[in-house]
Amino acid sequence: MLLLGIIILFGYVVGSINAGLILSYLQGLDIRTKGSGNAGATNVLRVIGIKSGITVFIIDCLKGMLAIYGTAILLSNSDQNLIFSKEIYFYTASLASVIGHSYPVWFSFRGGKGAATGLGNILYIFPSLTIGPLLVFIATLVLTKYVGLSTILAFFSLSLFAYFYIGIEDIKFLTYLFLLFLFIVYAHRDNIASMLNKSEHKISF
After folding, report:
1. Which pTM was predicted?
2. Separation of alpha carbons 136 and 192, rounded Å
3. Which residue from 75, 70, 90, 19 is spatially nearest to 48, judged by alpha carbons?
């Protein structure tokens, strides 16, 4: 259990290094006081610019991958008997990193929404699985211009594509993906409310 606790803490700390907040501080502002008030890549893109938005997105993805890669290193160097399968440790680190991104202790627990970090997790665990959800994201964004809705549907489709890829046999992986989807929905609850009352910001192409 000690190893599991270390992995949870490691994933959280990696996830809580918020690129959007750091970059905005370097430019003399707090991104959470501008635009949508979110510290993720989309708001950075809107407020600061496309280059900064892309930079934040890439960093957030990379830290999602780092959370799993670091966990793999911890497991390989541990002399403890593993209580669970390696996959459970990976999934736990993934969820911890997404929570860390959204609720960073260094920034008063006010961060982003975890989508890019979650994407980085999946890119490390099962990279080919991201192709279908990426197409869902693009199609939804083009049709609706809502980034939040596109993100929610993309993460929902992860479970569906995983089911068609591997079936019901790997129930642990499917459960992990569904938990990740539920967190993304919760993180986007304000966006959902805004879409329902037709006040949600639409992205401009």
Report:
1. 0.92
2. 18
3. 19
